Amino acid sequence: MWSPRLVLLALALVLSSPLAQADVRLPALVSDGMVLEQKTPVRIWGWAADGEQVTVALRGQSATAETRAGQWSVLLKPLDAGGPFELTIAGSNRIVLKDVFVGEVWVCSGQSNMEFPLARAFQAQPDIEAAADPALRMFTVGKQISDTPQSDVAGGKWEGASPEARAHFSAVGYYFGRALRAARKVPVGLIHTSWGGTPAEAWTSRSALEAWGLPATAFAALAPPNAAAKQAYERSLAAWTSAGRPQGNFEDPGMLDSAKAWALPETETRDWQAMALPGAWEQAGPELQVDGGIWFRRELNLPEKWAGRALDLSLGAIDDFDTTYFNGGRVGATGSETPNYWQARRRYQIPASAVRAGRGVVAVRVWDHVGDGGFTGPASELWIAPAGAAASERLSLNGEWRFKPERTRPTMPSPPGLNQNLPSVLYNGMLAPLLPYTIKGATWYQGESNAGRASEYRSLLTSLIRNWRTDWQEPDFPFLIVQLAPYMSIQPEPEESGWAALREAQTQVARDLPNVGVTVITDVGDEKDIHPIRKRPVGERLALAARKIAYREPIVAFGPSFRSAAIADGKVVVSFDNVGKGLQAHGAHLTGFAIAGADEKFVNADASIVNNHVVVSSPRVPAPAYVRLGWANYPVVNLWNADGLPATPFRTDPP
Fold first, then answer.
1. pLDDT reported for residue 506
2. Is 3.40.50.1110 the CATH classification of the domain at 24-224+417-558?
3. Which of 24, 164, 495, 576 has its CA 20 to 30 A from that of 148?
4. Which letter does DSSP use for residue 487 in this model?
5. Residue ranges per domain, the chain?
């Protein structure tokens, strides 16, 4: 039997426990400085002990809810814009939130170009140093991956738009919010949730991905690692360490003396193995789970008419570094000094003096530091041709190459568990916690990590948008997409383009779904950097799209977009929507148009503006069938409307 002293001690312990105290707790988003969406019911939620009554009061109204399964939520009646106000939450304890505003709330999501901070943006210092705006509030969601939906974010707080807060906030998000503030004259709250280098699948729920068609095997990595997996990883790591370290400074990709003749045409390669390119060498077999240096060679039979002509050699992207030779002579290299070197497209020129008809040898030494290594494509970018020649003259380099390892060590094993690129993990960790929060809409700057898979991106992005809208219980909230910026080397002749195809997919999604807009940024790219620094036009054009789609303002928010094409007298007459005050060429002549006959062999075309239409023709295509604008990785286009917005790239030929 318990003594009175033990009973009192047990009672004291119970009363001091968090459950007994039943303190009301709030998610990170519901805090000082937050912005609530105006003119619609808004949800306030949190946690407390089961059965506890929680009352929320703001601006003369209050709402009470009973806590069930540890959670409570209330809906406040629509509020008019304004602030700052105090919001009171009372249960067993009382919480007073200060500096609460009511206005417009937007989510800003995507990958690295959305994550890109204002401090790194072009000529942003005056914008950083400008006076603080207390009614522009910013919340950056802490990075968090999870195999199941989370109820709260990993970190973050509402901040006013002070110089210090602006500097590290999303540049695109900030410029979008600032422009929206200026136009709408109400407080604006921005919730920034992004992670560089991540695919759209990571931002989509498992149920939506399964409905989209992703197989169950794709989710296998989401299972928590068991003890056996952890032990296997530790064994692999120990083996990697013992195998790798005795080879000296392995981070130095210097060439072994024994390999310096491997670029010469006369070098015997009968003992070299075969591999199909493009592709990572790790995919070729278990014996190639290695990092380090591997040589690749491809023998060619050059046409007689190529002799004495400079050649363009295109190898696509190579992970990580390469040194490239033709007939034993070095023609180019890409190393760590190149931004995003693992994604940079290799394009080298072979001097005319080195080109003879008949046998030629391309040799490429690839050095990979970690992860997959090799030629990562796309396949359409592996070719050789006379400099400036049409795509039809190219000799494809897809297919079998010979290879030989020079200096390698086993690939560093990856620890078991999650990473940010797996399906649903960022939806679970960085989006699901936001779902109770009432928002106006979302901006989305992502696609680089899905480039090369444009045919599936259209349906994938459609599924993501529907997924977000369903889970936010807002079936048609505005969703604003930033089209991919120009990137990679400018090509003088028309060719196929994975990035152009992905831009097309983004445009198609906007046509497929209501209240979706695409912001075009063909004028702010960078040939050598996947992260262009001119972010102000991006954010400001997103704000125009929001004003048009979300707030129904009677403004021109988009540049000229393809409506129809008519063919007559050897010319194509293109009609456009979003002409606004009229079509304009930013330059002496229109650029970026290409034309083709029924054979779909595109050539650069002449184009001119006639009565707010564009007339396209070429003497090389007497019977045109198709027309394109800006169909390139890095489109060079200058068709705008007089309202200051660039035209949307398009094609009329079938995919």
1. 98
2. yes
3. 24
4. B
5. 24-224+417-558, 260-410, 561-651
With H, G, I as helix, E, B as strand and everything else as coil, classify residue 462. helix
Superfamily in which the 260-410 domain is placed by CATH:
Galactose-binding domain-like (2.60.120.260)
How would you classify the pairing of strands 42-47 and 71-76? antiparallel
Residues in the chain: 655
Compute, in degrees rounded to 10, the torsion defined by CA atoms 457, 460, 465, 466: 150
C-alpha span between 443 and 107 (Å, rounded)? 6
Q: Which of 67, 100, 112, 33 is nearest to 420 (CA)?
A: 112
CA-to-CA distance for 176 and 506, rounded, in angstroms?
A: 20
How many other C-beta atoms lie within 10 A of the C-beta of residue 430? 27
Looking at 493-570, which runs of residues are DSSP E strands?
A: 516-519, 561-568
128: Cβ contacts below 8 Å, ≥ 6 apart: 118, 119, 163, 166, 167
**Distances, alpha carbon 9 to alpha carbons 20, 22, 271, in Å:** 15, 20, 81
What single letter denotes the amino acid at residue 465? I
What single letter denotes the amino acid at residue 154?
Answer: A
Q: Could you tell me if residue 213 is left (phi over 0), alpha (psi between -120 and 50 degrees) or otherwise beta?
A: left
Q: Which residue has the higher pLDDT, 249 or 300?
A: 300
- The two three-digit tokens of residue 5, written as one number: 């002293």
Rounded Cα–Cα distance for residues 160 and 242 (Å): 52
At 60, is the secondary structure helix, strand, or coil? coil
pLDDT for 646:
98
Can you give 280-335 as a three-state secondary structure string? EHHHHCHHHCEEEEEEEEEEEEECHHHCCCCEEEEEEEEECEEEEEECCEEEEEEC
Domains 24-224+417-558 and 260-410 share a fold: no
Work out whether strand 479-482 and strand 516-519 pair parallel, antiparallel, or are unpaired.
parallel
β pairing state of 593-596 and 279-280: unpaired
pLDDT score at 251: 60
Q: Could you give the CA distance from residue 646 to residue 655 in angstroms, rounded to a whole number?
A: 23
Spatial neighbors of 361 by CB under 8 A, at least 6 apart, are 263, 265, 297, 298, 299, 300, 325, 326, 327, 328
Retrieve residue 626's tokens.
Answer: 């198709």
Determine the pLDDT at residue 3: 40
Predicted confidence (pLDDT) at residue 19 exceeds the cutoff of 50? no
Rounded CA gap, 563 and 33, in Å? Answer: 45
Instruction: Identify how many contiguous H helices and E strands the chain contains and give both numbers.
Output: 12, 35
Q: Centre a 10 Å sphere on the Cβ of residue 116 and count the other Cβ atoms it contains.
A: 23
Bridge partners (DSSP) of residue 275 are 401
Angle in degrees, 0-180, between the axes of helices 498-512 and 454-471, rounded to the nearest 10: 40
Which structure tokens are listed for 471?
A: 């889970």
- Which SS3 state, helix, strand or coil, does residue 500 take? helix
Report pLDDT digits (tens) over 232-254. Answer: 878 877 777 676 543 444 566 78
- Which residue would you say has higher pLDDT here, 54 or 249? 54
